[in-house]
Amino acid sequence: MVELTIDGKKIQTNPGTTVLEAALANNIDIPRLCHHPELSVSGGCRLCIVNVDGYSNPTPSCGLTCQDGMAIETQNEELLKSRREIIDLFISEHPLDCVTCDKSGTCLLQKYAYEFDITKTSHEFEISKPIYQDDNPFFIRDHQYCILCGRCVRVCDEVVGAKAIDFAGRGFECHIATPFDDPLKDSTCVFCGNCIQVCPTAALTPVSRMGKGREWELDRLKTICGYCGVGCQIEYALKDGKIIYAQSTPDAPVNGEFLCTKGRFGWDFATAPERLTSPMLRRDVAYELGLTSENWELPQKSPLAVRKPKVEDSHIPIDWDTALDLAARKLSENVKEYGPDSIMGLASARCTNEENYIFQKFFRLGIGTNNLDHCARL
Amino acid sequence: MTNSIAEIRDTDCIFITGSNTAEAHPVISYEVIRAVNEGAHLIIVDPRKIPLIEHATLFLQVKPGTDIYVFLAIMHTIIRDGLADEAFITERTEGFEEFKATLEEYTPERASLMSGVSVEQIEEAARIYAQGKRKSGPSIYDSRHGHSSILYAMGITQRSNGTDMVMTLANLAMLCGQVGKPSTGVNPLRGQSNVQGACDTGCLVNVYPGYQKVGDETKRKTIAKTWGVDELPGEVGLTIVEAMHAAVDGDVRAVYVMGENPMMSDPNTSHVEKALRNLDFLVVQDIFPSETALLAHLILPAAASLEKDGTFTNTERRVQLIQPIIEAPGDALPDWQITGGIAARYDREMGVERDKEHWIFPSTQEIFQELTTVTPIYAGMKHERLVGEGLQWPCPEPDHSGTPILHKGKFSRGLGKFNPVLANDPAEQPDEEYPLILSTGRVLYHYHTGTMTRRSGPLAWAEPRGYVEIHPEDAAAVDVLDDRAVVINSRRGSVKTRAKITENVPQGTIFLAFHWREAPANMLTQDFALDPVAKIPEYKVCAVRLENPRAKRKKPELVKQA
Question: ipTM of the assembly?
Fold first, then answer.
């Protein structure tokens, strides 16, 4: 164990812990922009500077390893002045259009400007990189909001492994870019959106979220992703009952803050116009039952051979009671005539435990067969 | 998984085979990449140059179906070079001597000849895995050996010897004592949100909930008693593929499908379609009018997982609560209500007097409550306990905190059994008529039969159409051009799609994902040779021939020559 004092408080921590980590673990908040707990240390924003007893200059706490006997000061007039100057410089090239900005309320730059009471820059205001890239339907890149913290570059490299983006250009020209500034689709980007997740400002915004509501108006609900078997927890942000965007939160037990492209962006299928909204009976069966006057025959052509098959062409809507009665009757007729093993049930790897339990119980207790499988093998 | 996802990050050596992790389980690949960045070794055995090989220390590019020789040779090397964990073998396992004898013939030289992987690579992989070596940096584990973990997926199991393949990986882990500790184990990455749970709850032909064998009379009778009857069916039922054959023969006459699309996901689509058309009654419960639903007599609209509550069990056996985020459209209902409604009415039709409470539940909590009474591995769970982190089974008691690592100190059967495995080749080998091997799988932006992802705007934009990956040499042989049409023929059928010429597939192998309804891969796959135990179809290997549709139209003489 290493023992040090931070703001006069005696703190014990494991060797290798940084001063920032030790402070945060002890409820001492230090302002920071480029730091992210899941990513490597960058030290670029300098906002987390602290005074160290015996050091001549303030030092970024994110890159400072705790040592025995260290005495750290995180707050004083001098440090506040330096931090104010840093935020002042950031907003000298960052639009202060928080009144219409989608990120307002969760933007870190806005948070610190508020905390340090900075209403406008004391420098000459100039947007040095007025680049707006909307080359894909996943997210936009609006570089005028970018503060070059590099979180997106690090998450892409260190967590996702895609290495699609990096710093390009120098001085005021510096911006985050794919090689040769090619569109993201032509890069190694996998559209996982973890860059949006770690972006502290509105530089990266999901397309689905743009102009859809203020952060504080959104409802937030968490559930488990419906795609693969990893079981990521996703937090959905909703406005008026509609999903605006999806993200993750650090408390997600399996995935922490990270998601893949399907989990983060693939939720819009749920409101696709082709969703089934009522029970549907095949037209020939409906005719037999006298529910329609027109007879019909199932075409020999495979549904796979039809380019865009429409369920209305082959089926008519019916009510739930008729549908459930018919299902029960047809299954029972078959069982009476051919026995329970003439029935096969395919349960679902996409349904819940409760649903699969009821399904297999119906087959075993109700029908009396073990002809019961699902796509675990497929 | 024997172990948990969070442990991957601290692993010293990760051994991935038959899993395109970065595309099919991206979030697990993040853990792998973080481990590699911390200095872990990454060994990949796969026929295709999958994205993760960029991070790998060793990439053993095997010819499809020959990986078994490589695994056996790795174990041969481990024993030959004295790298086995003798203490673990003596204390924790049985059947070692018999198993050891079967390995003698599987030399690295033979494996190299069969698989195309060099002897050096095989021996290096054996050394790194057995000792849990790191590339750099210290291990967080201060044991004699570093910790090695095996990750695998359907590339191993969707084979006519899939069970043997899994047993081989289990043998490898036991041989090196790489099981029962953190960051080790044999870890299948499962492909659907609740495929683990569907198995756990007994939606399989041979087991009741909690993997209680249908033939085990005592256990069966206990469940029967809970369900208020004297006896339940004790014969193993028909698996999906067997049922399709039975349907063609007229032995299976009605099928109830809940949230599946066999027209796209089952092998030999033409045969599946024939089977489904032959039924007296097909009822399909789904969120979309899938290709299967379009053939159904009756379609029942279900709520999607975003619209309902209940639990999902993930690949690391973690049971987690889901909750509704949005409202289900129209009259769509959660599946448990639909199935319950049918079951109650079915009893009435059959004249069975049974309390409706067997089928009609006030909420999913009560269903889960009943589930736990017949599922010993879930016995200690209830919905309230799952809030937050969930629980990993087995969780047998109400105060049990779940089991992140299986086989700690003792295997579930007591001693770990070495099952000797002999190498078997895939059932359908390429020949003169069908000279190439087709392997199927997934791509990053799509999921299973594409019913969901192909209706997602951004995902469909990223990967709008199907394509087949072809090695440049194979493409040149039939004069197929990149991004142009190509026809793939097998003994079952043919599919037309777009060629993507790439060296990511080895010469002699093509890859086609099964997401594309306009190019359904399972038109081509075979359904005659299943794994004898698991009855899994061999999606990863079947023989095909490429054909250039332009050549057929314009230059018939060239086709003859080809």
Answer: 0.96
